[in-house]
């Protein structure tokens, strides 16, 4: 039986959920009470919401059909006696629940965004502070609801399966892994499809509008502008909501599997080692709520980034306090671990890693030397701008990797040192890394609030310009949009770091399942010898999978953007009244082009990380008839694919963010300002970087975790 008393602190999960719902309701009431602006603003907002809903309806139908097919396959495979304990209808049901909740998270993110956009634009007519409160609290609703849904959904599924499986914890966790698989599966489709949509529209609008026609970014005469604004909601909001949901679910489950390994290798351990990750996330949610609540501007001259940083730092401080309380009560008191503080220290390492990544990302994508160097290179044309941007993106991978390396080593050694006498120290080392990962995720609700703040302000600015608001209104939305660009870059860095730790964690969980099935210790099975040619091949496949995936994602943007460009040119050419302002452009046509382009192109790359490791593992298992080589080769695929994925995602995210802010730096009046040759070059660089930072990069975050979760679910196929 599960103890809901003070020993496990599990009661904090429903308590945190109730408090979160109250906060979300308060912010909802605040945002929805604000004025929706002029009739013209409302017309634009309605067009954005209609386009977003139409896209999501078609996308979710596609995801739903594919998810049902996958679930049926899982259930059918489970009919074989040799696989029944690990692949069965329970896993299939958990998969569908995880996919469904991931879709719901994306929908919530989009719905909140489209209703906050217009209210932000309207509030900007009054003051910067009013617009900021609406936009940040709108983002907070999404962050709170998605994080709460992830925690509560997982907890409820876990409890249901615990009693369904006759309180067999091993079978429970094996079944619940399907939940993480479903969440990652749906999130990859949502993130990838939304990314293709938003960047196809953005690139098409910018190249024809700003570069060829010489009109402002969000000029209502541009037929692609509405599609561009729709893309911000279906990509940056719906896609990121699903991304954060699956990150939390996958990392909690991975930590719980490692906790099970502790229980299985240490006779004095109880299930409290499994429950601790859930409790830490619950406390982290409460910390995020406090941090979100205190964020505000003193006046219109206040620094927006500093205001949000204050809330973030407060969140971190509270997470640290709750971390010590939880580890002391659960590991120190309940488990009798004298050096419980070692695990608390591992959690602090994870938190510091998150902070370090945020600062590094801010340096490479904010108003600092790297961005200014790209802006300066724009004076000599688009070619030098692109070359400098690629260089900065590559350089930006160095410091994050150093930080991740230090964090993994430190958390592992802290857990290793905390191992009680007579236990498997390596397993406790992995648990230290698990606590570090979970502690870093403690601020996920605040991080998502900052992330959603970005597209809300971007859309708010677009609505203000399209409705011909006075210049002071656009100045306010531009200031918020600039801060939003920075926060979006910061949160991508955070997501990348969490993906790195999570992937390592899930990789270890994969070997824990191998060890359990084969009746071996995790130490015995974790040795992957890349000097063995048959295993080295697995590493090569993992590496090329990342490159091929990124290629397909970027190419999809190029193809859809090409269609968008031709359509915008056609409308300008055939209807001169559009540029003259005497007739309206056909925005619905551009929305349809982006929708079809995204849905057509997202299926193949999204299925790659599922099919490739399964097919590869089955070939090894049955063609070579050697389960040892099979699981080790699949392990190499996950390992190298994760390493390459982390580097690739960091390069794409930071390079794209640096290009974007270099353009904005020039638009502020530097290097000739708007309309200058340097500005034209910077627009080209920004266009190149768009599919980097908003399509391929964020999707790879999901890919590296999906690689591990699919292998967790299907491991029995390679080793039975």
Q: What does the model show?
A:
This protein has 720 residues and is an all-alpha fold. The chain has one domain (12-719). The protein is 83% helix and 0% strand. It is built from 21 helices and no strands. Helix 2 (39-77) runs antiparallel to helix 5, helix 10 packs antiparallel against helix 11 and helix 11 runs parallel beside helix 21 (677-719). It is globular and about 80 Å long.
Shape: globular
Mean pLDDT: 86
For the largest beta-sheet, the strand count, sense and barrel status come to: none
Helix content class: over 70%
SSE topology string: HHHHHHHHHHHHHHHHHHHHH
Number of domains: 1
What is the tally of beta strands? Answer: 0
What gyration radius follows from the Cα positions, in whole Å?
25 Å
Structural class of the secondary elements?
mainly alpha
User: Which regions are unreliable across 5 or more consecutive residues at pLDDT < 50?
Assistant: none
Strand percentage: under 5%
* Ends apart, CA distance between termini: 31 Å
Helix count equals 21
In short:
Helix content is 83%, strand content 0%. It is an all-alpha fold and 720 residues long.
List keywords for this structure.
720 residues; mainly alpha; 83% helix
Task: Show the helix and strand layout.
Layout: H1 12-32, H2 39-77, H3 89-123, H4 128-164, H5 169-213, H6 225-265, H7 272-294, H8 304-333, H9 341-365, H10 369-377, H11 382-395, H12 398-417, H13 425-441, H14 444-466, H15 471-518, H16 522-525, H17 533-574, H18 577-580, H19 587-623, H20 627-667, H21 677-719
């Amino acid at each position: 039986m599960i103890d809901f008393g003070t020993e496990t602190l599990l009661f904090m999960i429903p308590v945190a959920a109730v408090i979160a719902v109250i906060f979300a309701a308060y912010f909802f009431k605040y945002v929805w009470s604000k004025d929706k602006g002029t009739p013209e603003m409302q017309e634009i907002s309605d067009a954005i919401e209609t386009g977003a809903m139409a896209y999501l309806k078609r996308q979710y139908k596609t995801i739903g059909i594919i998810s049902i097919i996958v679930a049926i396959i899982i259930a059918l495979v489970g009919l074989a006696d040799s696989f029944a304990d690990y692949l069965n209808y329970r896993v299939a049901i958990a998969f569908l629940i995880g996919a469904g909740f991931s879709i719901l998270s994306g929908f919530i993110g989009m719905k909140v965004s489209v209703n906050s956009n217009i209210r932000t634009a309207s509030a900007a007519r009054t003051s910067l502070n009013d617009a900021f409160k609406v936009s940040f609290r709108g983002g907070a609703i999404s962050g709170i609801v998605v994080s709460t849904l992830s925690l509560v959904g997982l907890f409820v599924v876990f409890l249901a399966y615990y009693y369904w499986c006759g309180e067999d914890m091993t079978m429970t966790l094996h079944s619940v892994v399907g939940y993480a698989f479903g969440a990652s599966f749906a999130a990859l489709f949502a993130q990838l499809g939304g990314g293709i949509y938003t960047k196809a529209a953005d690139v098409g609008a910018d190249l024809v509008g700003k570069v060829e026609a010489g009109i402002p970014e969000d000029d209502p005469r541009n037929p692609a502008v509405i599609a561009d604004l729709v893309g911000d909601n279906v990509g940056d909001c719906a896609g990121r909501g699903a991304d954060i949901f699956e990150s939390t679910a996958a990392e909690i489950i991975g930590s719980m599997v490692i906790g099970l390994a502790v229980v299985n290798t240490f006779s004095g351990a109880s299930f409290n080692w499994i429950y601790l990750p859930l409790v830490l996330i619950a406390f982290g949610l409460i910390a995020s709520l406090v941090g979100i609540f205190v964020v505000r501007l003193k006046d219109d001259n206040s620094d927006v980034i500093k205001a949000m940083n204050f809330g973030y730092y407060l969140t971190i401080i509270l997470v640290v306090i709750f971390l010590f309380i939880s580890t002391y009560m659960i590991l120190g008191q309940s488990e009798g671990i004298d050096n419980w503080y070692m695990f608390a220290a591992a959690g602090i390492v994870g938190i510091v890693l998150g902070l370090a990544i945020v600062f590094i990302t801010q340096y490479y994508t904010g108003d600092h030397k790297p961005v200014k160097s790209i802006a300066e290179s724009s004076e000599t044309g688009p070619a030098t701008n692109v070359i400098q941007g690629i260089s900065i993106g590559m350089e930006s991978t160095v410091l994050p990797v150093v930080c991740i390396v230090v964090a993994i080593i430190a958390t592992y050694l802290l857990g290793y040192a905390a191992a009680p006498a007579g236990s498997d120290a390596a397993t406790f080392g992995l648990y230290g890394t698990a606590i570090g990962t979970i502690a870093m995720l403690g601020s996920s609700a605040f991080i998502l609030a900052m992330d959603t703040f970005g597209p809300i302000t971007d859309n708010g600015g677009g609505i203000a310009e399209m409705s011909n608001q006075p210049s002071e209104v656009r100045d306010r939305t531009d200031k918020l949009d600039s801060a939003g660009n920075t926060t979006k870059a910061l949160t991508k860095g955070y997501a990348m770091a969490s993906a790195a730790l999570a992937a390592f964690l899930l990789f270890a969980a994969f070997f824990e399942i191998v060890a359990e099935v084969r009746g071996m210790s995790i130490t015995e099975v974790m040795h992957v010898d890349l000097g063995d040619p048959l295993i080295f091949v697995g590493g090569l496949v993992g590496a090329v999978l990342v490159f091929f995936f990124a290629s397909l994602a970027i190419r999809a943007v190029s193809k859809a953007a090409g269609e968008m460009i031709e359509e915008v040119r056609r409308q300008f050419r055939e209807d001169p009244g559009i540029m003259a302002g005497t007739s309206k452009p056909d925005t619905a046509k551009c929305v349809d082009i982006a929708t079809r382009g995204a849905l057509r192109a997202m299926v193949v790359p999204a299925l790659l990380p599922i099919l490739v490791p399964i097919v590869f593992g089955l070939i090894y298992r049955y063609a070579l008839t050697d389960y040892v080589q099979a699981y080790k080769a699949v392990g190499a695929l996950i390992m190298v694919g994760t390493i390459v994925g982390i580097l690739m995602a960091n390069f794409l995210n930071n390079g794209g963010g640096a290009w974007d802010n270099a353009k904005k730096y020039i638009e502020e009046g530097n290097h000739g300002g708007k309309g200058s040759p340097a500005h034209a070059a910077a627009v080209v660089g920004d266009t190149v970087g768009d599919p980097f930072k908003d399509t391929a990069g964020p999707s790879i975050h999901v890919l590296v975790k999906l690689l591990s979760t699919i292998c967790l679910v299907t491991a029995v196929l390679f080793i039975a």
